[in-house]
Amino acid sequence: MALSAFSDPESPTLRHLKRLVGVALIPVCWILLETFLVLLHADTLAGEYWKSREFVFFGLGAAFSLVLFFFCQGRLLRWLYVAGHELTHALFVLLFRGRVSDVHVSSRGGHILTDRTNFLISLSPYFFPFYSVVGIVGWALYCWVVGEAGAPDPVWLYALVGFTWTFHLAFTLWMVRGEQPDVIQNGRVFSFSVIFSANVLVLSAMIIVASPTASFRSFLLSFWENFRTFLPRFLESLVEIYTSIETWFTT
């Protein structure tokens, strides 16, 4: 299912450069995952936040989204995903001061026609949760119009974000397995490294904003510590593997 149409061929040199950058980003992906797991444990699971109404409603929204994805997936859900996918392309084109001349959406696929593209434009739908952003902006505008007295319980916003973000993640994992032009255009290694890193950063930011104990400063400090010690830890692991193999062959 082709979701985007770009006609911007890259030179072999640029393709090789993206492949090298993609390989270089693999350790960064691992460090980001380590940092995210520390954040998840320290500020969510080990604390009391996972018992809060906000976290529970987020989980309920996410669970409902997964039920729809696995058991009620149909043309409407696929159309909604494709629409969000293509509108995300269009949004990033506009952010980079490009022009969108056509947007085509159907349950079987879609594309946009534009005079500008780059790796952020082509990969943006795989890490930018379009409907979550729309939901948050819509919620903020509604609360601004009705005022504090008429604003609904904020836990429903957490449920909305849980539902829409899980919708984004589930369909992204489902679609990215295929022959996506967006991914092929940028190379699989580079694309997957960027997509993984960006999604971990987005999810980490969501936890930091939601949790009363997490902070961007602590996340950055944890990332720096994991980054600083990555090579020694990696080399130590290689030595341990070599020693284990040598011991196994000599006994």
What is this entry, summarized?
This protein has 251 residues and is mainly alpha-helical. Helices cover 74% and strands 5% of the residues.
Order of helices and strands: HHHEEHHHHHHH
Give the strand order of the largest sheet, numbering strands 1, 2, ... along the chain.
1-2
Give the count of structural domains: 1
Number of strands: 2
Distance between the termini: 54 Å
Q: Main beta sheet, described?
A: 2 strands, antiparallel
What's the helical proportion of residues?
over 70%
Strand content: 5-15%
Shape: globular
Uncertain segments: 1-7
* Average predicted confidence as pLDDT: 88
Q: Helix/strand-derived class? A: mainly alpha
> Tally the helices: what do you get?
10
Radius of gyration, Cα only, in angstroms? 21 Å
Question: Could you characterize what this model shows?
Answer:
This protein has 251 residues and is mainly α. The protein has one domain (34-42, 49-225). Helices cover 74% and strands 5% of the residues. It is built from ten helices and two strands; from the N terminus they run H-H-H-E-E-H-H-H-H-H-H-H. It has helices at residues 12-45, 53-71, 75-95, 119-123, 130-150, 155-176, 181-186, 188-210, 216-228, 230-250, and strands at 100-106, 109-114. Strands 1-2 form a two-stranded antiparallel sheet. Helix 1 (12-45) packs parallel to helix 8 (188-210), helix 1 packs across helix 9 (216-228) and helix 5 (130-150) runs antiparallel to helix 6. It is globular. 29% of the residues are buried. The model is unreliable at 1-7 (pLDDT under 50).
